[in-house]
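Researcher: Next entry in the queue.
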Amino acid sequence: MADRAKELSWAAAILRGMLGAIFLYHGAQMLFGAFGGNGFDATAARIQDYLGFRPGTLFAVVFGGTVFLSGLFLFIGLFTRPASIPAAVAAGLALFWKNWSETVFATPGDIFPYHLLLFAVALAVYFLGPGAFSVDRKIARERADARGQ
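Model: Structure for this entry, 149 residues:
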């Protein structure tokens, strides 16, 4: 049974780390123009023009900041379960805003399966927890040691 728990802990850590990396990457694109992204001004304009959220700059801070910070927290494994909730919401919103009017079947250039996978992984991370090599795990271990357990 201990081997199974160790395997699940590793699986959770891999899912959490990769999801965090993807959200960090995308948030950095949205906010800072990193990794070939369009940056903050283009993100704000797209949010305002395409999605209709006004003012676009405010929602660019909210959306981009949420994606970036949840990605950072997931990547390092800090506040894992709370951070997975906005990640799931962001992926779920992308499913509907960016894809629903197109198709639910994978076609060249279709990103619906990608957003669906991100949504599913965010939910899995919520239920699995942080797994191995996380700040959450280290904090829990230190608290247990302080209590003498």
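Model: The CA atoms of residues 91 and 115 lie 5 Å apart.
Researcher: Noted, moving on.
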